[in-house]
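Let's sit down with a protein and look at its sequence and fold side by side. Which protein we use is up to you, so please pick one and set it down. Label the sequence line and the structure token line clearly, so we can match residues to local backbone shapes. Go ahead whenever you are ready, and we will take it from there:

***
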Amino acid sequence: MPPRAVPRLVGGQWLMPADGRHIDVVDPADVRRVVGRVPAMSAAEVTELYDAAVLGARRWRATGLLGRAQVLIDAAADLRGRREEIAADLVAEMGKTLAEATVEVTKAADFFDYYASMARQPYGHLLADSRPGTETSVRSEPLGVVCLITPWNDPLLTPARKAAPALIAGNAVVLKPASETPLVAVHLARSLHDAGLPAGVLGLALGRISEIEAALLDDPRIAAVSFTGSTAVGRILKRRLADRTVRVQAELGGKNASVVLADADLALAVPTVAAASFGQTGQRCTATSRVIVDRRIADEFIAGLVQATEAIPYGPGTDPDVVVGPLVSRRHRDDVLGHIERARQEGAVIATGGTTPADGPLAHGCFVTPTVITEVTPAMGIWRDEVFGPVLAVGVVDGFDAAVAAANDSAYGLAASIFTRDLGHAHAFADRVDTGQVSVNLPTSGWDVHMPFGGFGDSGGSTVKEQGYEGLRFYSRVKTVAMRSEPGS
């Protein structure tokens, strides 16, 4: 049976590529299996998306806030109604476990519901004006056409997190999903289309970024670009758009630290750190990738962490007993294995994991066994570089102050957590750690849809958060209107 062919959405129409150009989407649990085929759009076809978006933006802006909200509400209901179908495609193209994929579909729907609720919130206010007979108001308006570039690790949730505030604000959206995971983005577009989103308000740019990059980013009609991905690409994107009046929002990398103090409850800390490190195969920006542990309990903590790690079952995401699935691609798998080998060469100890199955049923997948690396120093690359895989580096320090300094000794500043029974240390850590997200006796991951999300430093989002009211403000412009009610005076 040939792979399932997926159409593109342009101007409210679902179209198959006339020239047959396509991208095969493969299963990272077995790369021999092609799970779908999406159009490889040309630069001219991407420009068509912007042509349609300009017209769609005018119509969508004229749609009342409550009308926009109803589309989001109906799209959320459609996502939930097709949860099993969408989750299956997410597992097939990205490799998440079915449990993780199901949660992602639910959270994506939650984002639509949350931003739909903002339609019933104030979207402007009045200001006092010293001029007689004059009333001054401030109102929010849409920007126009925005471009959203989303990653492969949360291929449904991240597009929903970006598209929902953009749409409720009244903008048209051109969405570029990652080429590795386009199938669930098509599901997202299908839900919005079937919910009554007007033609042109959402367009899907499906294709190889090397072929459509200029058409996607250089179109003069773009008012804003929101990007989630690697720090290196984010920097290039910012430089490319720096001399234009285009808003840029970038949520980039992470090298998140969990601090385990001497008074920590290890029965809580060990499984929590392991789950935060290896859930989603470590392929999330908020995953714990560094552990900073007090020397007084280091041996006990490390022994427990290694034991917990070795008990984690890994394999294809379709297996209900599996906790850690494959990495998204062979290229990424090899990159992760390269980080592990460099750590070994620099003198770190691979306490467990660090291998890939060479034979058997997993040999054709993109697997790396859950890995704990010890005897790590701040000079090592494994302590500083984002790995984005099931790899956890452990460093040992003496006391609270040293732990805070180690947590802050990073170019990244997305998330951090601390495990302690000392309320004073908990509050002091929240004040002193230089990250946008802080947890106490909780994992570094797991933020809800209504919570502001973003980081400091190279993790991006330091000036504009990605979700909550801050996310909505990014997609809106402010207009101040002074109106004199007595023109003859």
Q: What stands out?
A: The chain has a mean pLDDT of 94. The two ends are 79 Å apart (CA to CA). The longest strand covers residues 30-39.
